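Complex 315.
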Amino acid sequence: MIWNRVLDHQRQLQYLKQLAKVPQKAPVLLFAGPSGVGKKLVAIGWAQALLCAEKDAPCGKCRHCLRVDSGNHPDVLRFQSEEGSTVKLEQARDLSQRAWMKPYEASRKVIVVDDFEKLTSQAANALLKTLEEPPEETYFVLLTSQVGAVLPTIISRAKVIHFGRLSQASLLKLKPDLPQWAIDTQLGSLDDVGLIADPKFKQTFELATKALKSLWTYRTYDAFTQLGELSEEKNLALFTVRVWLLQIRSALVGKIETVKTQTVALEKLSTGDLLKLSQLVVRLEQDIQSHINRSLAFEKFWLDTQSIQKGMSSS
Ligand SMILES: [Zn+2]
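Predicted structure with zinc ion bound:
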């Protein structure tokens, strides 16, 4: 059974197992969550549950289950946009037409649409009618890592199931040779693991750690140079934010548990200041996500942290 290979997400699987008894209650599912955490595997498992011929579905052994598992069941349609491109109107129309065709072999048909946020609004609108009243025995699973980019009209027609990041234990099971810095960064998806191979992320981890300390050493020049470097690439800027939030959190936990943490400079801050700092980092993340000039966003962040430094000197 495909679902036996899913790590974590047990609550979601429980829900789907119940739903599989009355799938017509939710003909359109929207799986929302980071990429690389197993949403696709859960979706294919869902197809297995719906197409299985046995009473206790999915059995994992019948003809349908085996064909779904091997990826060549004619009643499971996988729809994926090409790398880096959006899904256009014609493709959405084609998908809509295929949704209306009768299943070939099973009693139902499952359509899995990956990266649903990549549909242009025209394409999504073309699908809207089909999603609103899907043909009988046709079931959709839409996958997205950016639920905010999916049209609200689509969301309102779907049953949304949220997926979180993978636990460290699961990630270590998949990748037993994770380096310590990656464990410290609490990567939570297989896509994240892919990042480890890129030396830029290790360098950014080290630079971000140094920069957070520079904020409190009054070496303005160092701080500006480091922040400038960190702001250069969007994905690295976002990774920086994550490193900082985790280090602030670990300092906060240190306050509560009075254990010694790695982040020496942060230890000097009061709990209130740490919370304030984490708010500034979250705001920086929002600025990076929007289209504000990143190096300006990092400078603004630095300026905002100065009020916290004043708090330090007066205490
Ligand atoms: Zn079966």
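The chain has a mean pLDDT of 85.
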